[in-house]
Structures are given as C-alpha cells and as structure tokens.
Amino acid sequence: MLEKLFNDDSCQRLLAGPMGPHLEALSSKLAELGYCDSQARKVVCTAAALGDWLAERGLTPAEAGRAELKAYIEAQKRMPSGRLRDGAVGFSRLPALLEAEGVLCKPSPETPADPCLRRFSAYLANVRGVTPSTQWTYRRFVGPLILGLCEKDGPDWSKLTSDYVSNYVLGTTSEVRAAKGRVVSAVRTFLHFLVLEGVAPAQMVKAIPRVRRWRYAKLPKHLSSDELALVLKACETQSKTSLRDRAFIALLARLGMRCGELRALRLQDVEWTTGLLHIRQSKSGRGRTLPLPEDAGRLLARYIREERPIAEYREIFITSTTPRKPLGECSASSFVKMFLQQLGLDGPGRGSHSFRHTVATLMVKNGATLKEVADVLGHRSLSTTGIYIKLDEQSLGDVALPWSGGNV
User: Fold this and answer.
1) Which of 7, 144, 251, 332 is most solvent-facing, going by the fewest CB within 10 Å?
2) Does pTM surpass 0.85?
3) What are the pLDDT digits (tens) for 237-247?
4) Pick the catalytic residue: 106, 283, 325, 337?
C-alpha cells in the first residue's frame, strides 16, 4: 500500500526512517478505514516525522507513551493561518492506528494512587451511575488529593484529616476558579466512597468548606425570538452548510436538547410514523420522549437519505471525514459556533447550549409551567429550571412591588 501513496524515492526514504517498519501496516489500515490517498499520505508523513523526532531524543517508537506524544504535539505549533503543520495532521489517531504494532502505547508509570482511583471509578460507574466524562473529571480532582497521602505502599489514610481536606479544597478551588463546584462535588463524592470502604468517618464530609454560589445570580445566555427565527431560516436555506450540520442545529433550536443527547441519538430512536424522538441517554440518567418538529424532521430525513455515510454505527450523526465514527463533542461545538458566527450571532456564551436556554426561555414567556419546561429539558429538579423565571420580564413586572423611594 505504501507504494501506491508515494513514489519509489519517497518510499525508500520513509522505510529507512525509525518508523519505517510500521508504515506499511499503517498504510493498509488507513485504506481499510476508507482514507483517501491524499489524507493517508499526510497521516503517514506525520508518523514518519514523529519517528524522527523520537530518534533525535534517543527513543524508539516502542518506547513512546502518553508523555512523549504530548511533548511532540506541543512542539508542533500551528501555522499563522491556524492550520496544522504537516507533521501534526492525523496525529491524535496514530496510537489507535498503530496499536497492533505495539508502538506509541507505552503505559504510563503506575502511581501509588492508581489502585484507589480504579476502585473509585468502579464506584462512580456501578453505584453512582455517573457518565464517563464526569468520572474523568472526578478522577482529575481526586488524584492529587490521594497522592498527597501516598507513601511507597499506597495512601496513608491516617493523614486524611479535616485540615488536610479543607486545605486541599481551598487550594484547588483557588487555581480552577471556574470549576469550584466540580472540585467540591468530586471531593465530597470521594469521601462518601471512603466512608463505604471504612477508611474515613462519616463526619469527614463536613470538613469540606462551602463554596459560595449565589442561586440564580447569572442569567442564561439565550437568543431572542428574531435571532432564533434567523437561525431556523438559515437551516432551511443555507446550502453552503452541510445537511448534517443544519439538521443538528435545527434540532437543538427546536427541542433544546443537550448537545451530548443529540450526538448519542440513534437511528432506532426516531419514530417517523408518529413523529417522536426517544432520548435514552441523558445527563440526568432518565430518558424522555419529545415530538419531532416538521421542519427539523425534514432536514434530518434528508441528511439520512442523501448525506449520511455508510457506517457500522447506529448513531445518526457521523463524522464527514474518515475514519467514520459518531460525531464528537469538539466537532459539534465547533460547527455550531461557526454557524452562529456566519449569521453574526456569535459572542460570549453563544454555542450549542444557548439554544437550550432559548427554548426554555421562550416556553416560560409563552406561559408554560416550570414542570412542563423541566419535562422538556429533562431536569430532575424544578430548582434547576427556576432560573428561567428571571427572563420572563413581563410576568416579573406584574408581580413587582412599587419602589418606595419614588421615581429616580
């Protein structure tokens, strides 16, 4: 396969490099996955450049792991235009593509905290039922806490005092100011796990300092009715944007679904005869059924019939480039923001989630009850939905008391 992609001189040069013994297998794998020749050439050149970079540092591809891969991509600065350099195209896919060759997959060194983190992950998945992304977030914030207690044989739980917990939470929240609540939630959940394991008293949870967060202090970013109408019209008429992107955005704008729920939507979740969508994977862990709007349904049907590539996956929204796989979070967020930017509707807080806020806001303004809004959005608690009351200015004006100070 390598001879099909490069001329004889280039083949000989690539095969003589540190990554040479693995490039034929890589080329065959790329062809099997449906890569076009031009894209496959770029990925092969990236693999060869990575092998040369490792050799300069006295390493072979078999000795490379996550740390070396991270260092390499950090050295590949983007060009002034924002495009990736030739030595970085397809880089993130190389470890999976070359896994069978036994290269680029050196395991990270085991830390004394890893056994405890594995048990904690099992607890999160099997007992708490949290999503994989939340598990990753919790491990990220809990790992340093455990390492601070570790010796050679593992954590010394006698060092887990209320002062240690309090100082850790205060220090971590000061560094990640936007994720204070996640730090507190992660540590609290971990302490509950330790209580079940019998290594921490139940009172230890009270050592977590409170993070002050004013309820309903911020207004959710949303689009106006006119802006929403502009988006829906563009979904119908903007032929330069793919059907996939337009169908995806139309469903966000009409139903207020979470981006992750829409990415996880499968072919069998749509009842075309009754016009219903079954959302089975949600953040709250509970499914719900929503009506399929006519305009968004037309775009969705056109995408499936005319543009959706043949793939083994049942998810509806598939990547437009090889390898064909379900749409990822970054890809969806990027094309939604780009679509809004083309319409002049971009700005801070404007993205896929702003459509969710828009649907909820318009429902409240049109007289829907909080329970009805919560059922559409999939909220477990009405207190989560309560923030949208602040956006119903007319109703707030009807119940507002006169200002005792008179006109100002």
Assistant:
1) 7
2) no
3) 988 889 999 99
4) 283
